[in-house]
Write a structure and sequence with these properties.
There is one protein chain. By secondary structure, the protein is of the alpha+beta class. The chain has two domains: 5-105, no CATH class; 146-264, no CATH class. The protein is built from twelve helices and four strands, in the order ααααααααααββαββα. It has helices at residues 5-23, 30-37, 46-62, 79-91, 93-105, 118-121, 145-150, 153-173, 177-180, 186-190, 227-235, 261-264, and strands at residues 198-201, 207-214, 240-246, 253-258. It has a four-stranded mixed beta sheet with strand order 1-2-3-4, sandwiched between helices. Helix 1 packs across helix 4.
């Protein structure tokens, strides 16, 4: 059942109050927020409230904006919800854009690489979402802060170092120390534009082309690829490995996909080039 506009406004305001605390690194309690919100709503269960919070996360991710990590994006948005989110963003644009900018520029990691347990760092890949809502790309805030976060050079380098250390650990654990010593951090030594970041090795000694995309958000957060990266993966799909690093600022984890991007994710064009 669709929520009435009054309840949609209440839950959107509650969500953004939590999001702003999270972006400012202020501790808060989701359960306490939910308990305070429930008396203002008409017989909404905790599950219904949580699902609506996840809907808001999905809408923000679609707009290229950060969302609450504890409410992973869930699709099937009520149209009026997306409209209310856009209205709230427009009404608080100066405060929110400053926080979104700070989010995109941060690149902290909660623990040194040496203390990360790689045995536990590999997580499960996200469950594909069947999006039933319109796929419009209208954004009340023009800047895509998720893409801006991905282009944060410091964050990207730290994520690549994390995967570089994992690749060494993986090969050494397999008894392939000689191969581990041959790994090259290509993007650091030669710069971006190669179509991959790390030239590692498979256990049989063959090349393993590794591309790393890092986010401080959850594994459901969208990522962005260039035409060159798409082409390289398609040409070297047998030995191309995509590492999605997530939850980087709290407890870094990752999952791995092999092959062409078209084989393991849904691609959507977001910019177009015009010429005469």
């Amino acid at each position: 059942m669709d929520w009435p506009i009054r309840e949609v406004q209440l839950i959107a305001a509650d969500y953004f109050s939590m999001l702003q605390k999270e972006l400012s690194h202020v501790k808060y309690n989701k359960t306490a927020h939910r308990k305070a919100l429930r008396p203002l709503l008409e017989s909404r269960s905790d599950g219904s409230i949580e699902f609506k919070h996840q809907n808001i996360s999905a809408a923000l991710a679609k707009m290229g904006l950060p969302y609450i990590r504890g409410y992973k994006p869930r699709a099937n948005l009520q149209g009026i919800l997306e409209e209310e989110i856009a209205r709230y963003l427009r009404g608080h644009i100066f405060t929110l854009e400053k926080q979104f900018q700070e989010f995109a520029e941060e690149s902290t990691i909660s623990k040194p690489y040496q203390s990360i347990d790689f045995e536990k760092a590999m997580g499960e890949e996200p469950i594909p979402l069947e999006l039933k809502e319109p796929t419009s790309t209208y954004r009340p805030i023009n800047i895509n802060y998720l893409e801006k976060e991905q282009n944060n050079r410091s964050l990207g380098e730290k994520g690549e170092k994390f995967v570089f250390e994992y690749e060494r650990w993986r090969l050494i654990k397999a008894g392939k120390k000689i191969l581990a010593d041959e790994i090259k951090w290509v993007s650091k030594d030669l710069g971006d534009g190669m179509g991959y970041d790390i030239l590692s090795k498979n256990e049989d000694g063959s090349d393993r082309y590794v591309e790393v995309k890092t986010t401080k958000l959850t594994k459901e957060s969208p990522f962005y690829v260039t035409r060159g990266e798409l082409s390289f993966a398609a040409e070297h799909f047998n030995n191309f490995f995509f590492y999605r690093v997530y939850n980087f600022s709290t407890s870094p984890q990752f999952f791995v996909k092999q092959g062409k991007y078209e084989d393991f994710c849904k691609l959507q064009p977001v910019t177009f080039k015009g010429s005469f």
